C-alpha cells in the first residue's frame, strides 16, 4: 500500500483514461468486421470482404505508423492539449461512422478515429513512464497493462449486447467512453514534467524523417522488422477475419448449450438472447486469457532467451490461429484461442526486449522507437489477406455465388433492395435446403477452412525466418563486434 501511495494523481488519471479509451476502441473494433460485412437488413453496411480488409487494414496501419510523428508533436504542444484534441477526433469519427453507409464516407470517418488514436497512443504510455520511478515502474506498468486488457474486455462485451438491439448503440457506447475521457483530462489531468520541444514544426518533422531513415538503412535491422511484420500480419486475422468466419460458418449454439448445461447464468451472459453466442464474445476470450495467465507466462518467459521466446511464441500462435479456422465447432475454436493466447503472451511482449538486445548502445532508443513499423505493415498486409484472399477462398456469399454459376443460374446483384440475406433466402428455395444444410454443403464442397493454410503458413514462415536471422545474420554481427 505504501508503494501505491507513491503514484501521483496524474498516474491514476492516465490509467483510467487508458481503460475508457480501450473500452471505446475495442468496443467498436471487435465488432467492426461484422458491422462492415453483414447484410444491410440487419442494420449493418453489407460491404464486401475486400472493402472490409482495405478499410480495417489501412486505418489500423495509420494508427501504428503516425505515433512516431504525433508523439513528437505532443512533446511540443503539450500532453493535455493533445489528449483533448484526440478525444474530439475520436468523438467526431465515432459519430460519423454511425451515420455513414457508403464505403468512402465510412473510410473517411474511421480515418478520423485512426488519427485520434495515433495522437492518443504515445501520450499515455509516456505519462506512465514520467509519473513512475525506478522503484515503482514495474508495478506502474503492470497496472497500466491491466487497465489496457480490462478495457479491452469490457468494451466488446457491452457492444455485443448493444448491437443485438441496434447497431447505433455501439457507436453511442464508444462516444460515451470518449466524453468521460475528455472530462477526466480536462479537470483532473496535470501535465507531467517533461523536456519541452522548442524546435520549429518543420525541424521536428525533419528529425523524425532522419531517425526513420537511420534505422531502416541498417539492413540487418530492417530485415528483422520485415520478419516481425509477418507475425503481426498473422496476428491481426484475430480481429479482421475470425469474427466474419464465425458469423458465416460456426453454429455457436453448440457452445451455448454446453455452457448452459452446467452454468446457465454464464451462458445467458455470453449469449445473445437467441441461444447463440456472438463472434465477438468468442474473440474476447483472448483478452480474458491474457488477464488470467499473463503473469504466469511472463514468469516462465523471463527464464528464456528473447529470441527463443519469440520463436516459440510465434510457433504456438500460428498453430492456435490455424486451428481457429480448421473447425466449425465453437468449443474447438475456444480452445484454439487459448493456444493462440499462450503464443501471443510468450512472443509478443518479447519483441521490444529483443530489439534492445540487437541494437547498438548509441541507437537503442532510436531502434525501440521503430518497433511500430512492423505493426503498421502487418496491419496493412493483414487487411489485404483478410479481404481479397479470404473473400476468394472462404467468403460464404462468394462461394454460394460460385455454386449458382456452376449450376447455370443467374446471380442477382446485391443492392440496397436485394440484400445478402435475400440472396441466401433465394438460395434456400432454389437448392431446396435449409440455411444449415447450405452451410454444410458449401463447407464440404468448397473447403473454406483451407484458409488456415494461409494464416499458419505466414506464422511458420516468420518462425523459420527469425530462426535463420538469429543464427546467420545476428551471429555474424556479434562476431564482427567481437573482432572489432
Q: What structural keywords apply?
A:
single chain; mainly alpha; 484 residues; Growth Hormone, Chain: A
Q: How much helix is in the residues? A: over 70%
Following the backbone from N to C, one meets helices and strands in this order, namely: HHHHHHHHHHHHHHHHHHHHHHHH
Distance between the termini: 50 Å
Low-confidence blocks of residues: none
What value does the Rg take, in angstroms?
Answer: 23 Å
What average pLDDT do the residues reach? 90
Named CATH topology of the largest domain = Growth Hormone, Chain: A
Query: Got a strand count?
Result: 0
CATH architecture of the largest domain: Up-down Bundle
* Secondary-structure-derived class: mainly alpha
Q: What is the name of the CATH class of the largest domain?
A: Mainly Alpha
Amino acid at each position: 500500500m505504501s508503494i501505491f501511495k507513491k503514484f501521483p494523481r496524474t498516474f491514476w488519471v492516465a490509467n483510467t483514461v487508458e481503460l475508457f479509451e480501450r473500452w471505446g476502441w475495442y468496443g467498436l473494433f471487435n465488432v467492426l468486421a461484422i458491422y462492415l460485412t453483414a447484410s444491410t437488413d440487419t442494420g449493418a453496411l453489407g460491404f464486401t470482404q475486400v472493402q472490409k480488409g482495405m478499410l480495417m487494414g489501412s486505418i489500423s496501419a495509420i494508427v501504428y505508423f503516425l505515433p512516431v510523428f504525433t508523439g513528437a508533436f505532443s512533446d511540443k504542444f503539450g500532453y493535455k492539449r493533445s489528449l483533448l484534441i484526440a478525444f474530439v477526433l475520436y468523438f467526431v469519427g465515432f459519430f460519423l461512422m454511425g451515420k455513414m453507409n457508403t464505403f468512402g464516407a465510412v473510410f473517411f470517418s474511421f480515418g478520423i478515429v485512426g488519427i485520434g488514436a495515433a495522437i492518443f497512443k504515445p501520450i499515455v504510455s509516456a505519462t506512465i513512464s514520467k509519473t513512475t520511478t525506478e522503484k515503482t515502474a514495474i508495478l506502474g506498468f503492470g497496472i497500466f497493462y491491466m487497465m489496457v486488457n480490462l478495457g479491452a474486455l469490457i468494451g466488446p462485451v457491452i457492444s455485443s449486447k448493444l448491437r443485438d438491439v441496434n447497431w447505433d448503440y455501439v457507436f453511442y457506447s464508444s462516444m460515451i467512453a470518449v466524453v468521460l475521457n475528455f472530462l477526466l483530462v480536462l479537470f483532473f489531468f496535470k501535465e507531467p514534467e517533461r523536456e519541452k520541444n522548442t524546435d520549429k514544426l518543420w525541424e521536428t518533422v525533419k528529425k523524425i524523417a532522419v531517425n526513420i531513415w537511420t534505422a531502416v538503412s541498417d539492413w540487418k535491422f530492417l530485415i528483422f522488422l520485415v520478419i516481425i511484420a509477418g507475425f503481426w500480419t498473422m496476428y491481426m486475422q484475430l480481429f479482421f477475419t475470425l469474427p466474419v468466419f464465425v458469423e458465416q460458418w460456426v453454429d455457436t449454439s453448440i457452445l451455448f448449450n454446453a455452457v448452459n448445461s452446467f452454468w446457465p447464468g454464464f451462458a445467458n451472459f455470453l449469449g445473445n438472447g437467441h441461444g447463440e453466442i456472438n463472434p465477438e464474445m468468442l474473440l474476447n476470450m483472448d483478452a480474458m486469457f491474457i488477464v488470467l495467465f499473463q503473469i504466469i507466462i511472463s514468469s516462465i518467459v523471463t527464464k528464456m532467451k528473447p529470441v527463443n521466446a519469440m520463436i516459440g511464441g510465434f510457433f504456438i500462435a500460428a498453430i492456435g490461429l490455424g486451428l481457429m479456422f480448421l473447425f466449425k465447432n465453437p468449443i474447438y475454436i475456444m480452445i484454439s484461442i487459448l493456444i493462440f493466447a499462450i503464443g501471443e503472451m510468450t512472443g509478443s511482449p518479447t519483441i521490444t526486449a529483443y530489439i534492445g538486445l540487437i541494437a547498438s548502445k548509441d541507437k537503442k532508443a532510436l531502434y525501440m522507437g521503430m518497433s511500430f513499423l512492423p505493426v503498421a505493415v502487418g496491419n496493412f498486409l493483414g487487411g489485404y489477406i483478410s479481404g481479397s484472399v479470404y473473400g476468394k477462398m472462404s467468403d460464404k456469399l462468394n462461394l454460394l455465388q460460385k455454386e449458382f454459376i456452376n449450376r447455370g443460374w443467374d446471380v442477382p446483384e446485391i443492392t440496397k433492395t436485394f440484400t445478402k440475406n435475400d440472396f441466401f433466402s433465394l438460395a434456400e428455395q432454389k437448392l431446396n435446403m435449409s440455411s444449415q444444410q447450405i452451410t454444410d454443403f458449401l463447407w464440404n464442397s468448397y473447403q473454406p477452412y483451407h484458409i488456415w493454410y494461409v494464416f499458419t503458413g505466414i506464422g511458420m514462415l516468420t518462425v523459420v525466418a527469425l530462426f535463420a536471422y538469429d543464427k546467420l545474420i545476428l551471429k555474424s554481427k556479434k562476431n564482427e563486434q567481437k573482432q572489432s
